[in-house]
Write a structure and sequence with these properties.
three-stranded antiparallel beta sheet, about 230 residues, about 15% strand, alpha+beta, about 50% helix
Length: about 230
């Protein structure tokens, strides 16, 4: 069966809970050291290094070296999409084991980054609002419409050239693993996320992937897209 062996290899890489946890952590789009990932997973650094070597050899991660330090990150946006897609098809989460875990889970579900674009309730609501105003075409996998391109340039100062890429589509649907509905990915999704962070309409929450919509951001998105979210 052509491709069966390759598929089984990728599945095997993500079948280990520690390696899967590393990939989830790296969905924040940043490069992490082996020590940082080891602490996040609660494993020894030597154990983390063994797992990271397998992920790099398997093409899911790439490594960068700066002096004595070794950093790893997801190989590209397609790997991030694969991890998010698999999460969306996972079994319902078990009840949180502590209040801290419950608070973290709630923050992640409300708003987070999925590699370099927005996800969670905020990401899906933003995508819905853009589609309702004809900025995105749902019938074409959330393609950016000409009106949408003009809106990004006029309202968020995102120039058309910033959306052109030879390695990824301008816009595409990414199935959200908490909302089970699509949010905007692609170069347009990344540009929107960057614009909102630069304006501090959205800010990061600690060192996690969670982000928070600020009062100024809520006001701006209400004005621009008539977007309103329930109070946190």
């Amino acid at each position: 069966m052509t491709g069966a062996s390759e598929l089984a290899t990728v599945a095997g890489l993500l079948a280990d809970e520690t390696r899967a946890g590393f990939c989830l952590a790296l969905l924040d789009g940043r490069a992490w050291t082996a020590g940082e990932l080891a602490r996040s997973a609660g494993v020894a650094r030597s154990t983390a290094s063994e797992h990271l070597d397998k992920l790099v050899r398997g093409g899911l991660l790439v490594e960068e070296r700066q002096g004595r330090h070794r950093y790893v990150r997801l190989a590209d946006t397609s790997v991030a999409g694969l991890v998010e897609q698999l999460m969306s098809r996972s079994a319902p989460a078990t009840p949180p084991s502590s209040l801290r875990v419950a608070i973290t889970n709630r923050a992640m579900a409300a708003a987070r980054t999925c590699y370099d674009h927005l996800a969670g309730t905020l990401g899906v609501a933003l995508t819905d609002a853009m589609a309702e105003r004809g900025l995105l075409d749902r019938d074409a996998d959330l393609a950016l419409t000409p009106r949408g391109g003009d809106w990004l340039a006029g309202e968020l100062d995102i120039e058309p050239g910033a959306l052109r890429s030879r390695t990824r589509p301008t816009a595409r649907a990414c199935l959200d693993w908490t909302e089970r509905r699509p949010h905007l990915a692609g170069s347009a999704g990344a540009a929107v996320c960057t614009a909102l962070l630069e304006r501090e309409w959205v800010v990061r929450v600690g060192s996690s992937r969670a982000v928070r919509l600020t009062p100024s951001g809520a006001g701006a998105l209400d004005r621009l897209l008539d977007l309103r979210l329930p109070d946190e």
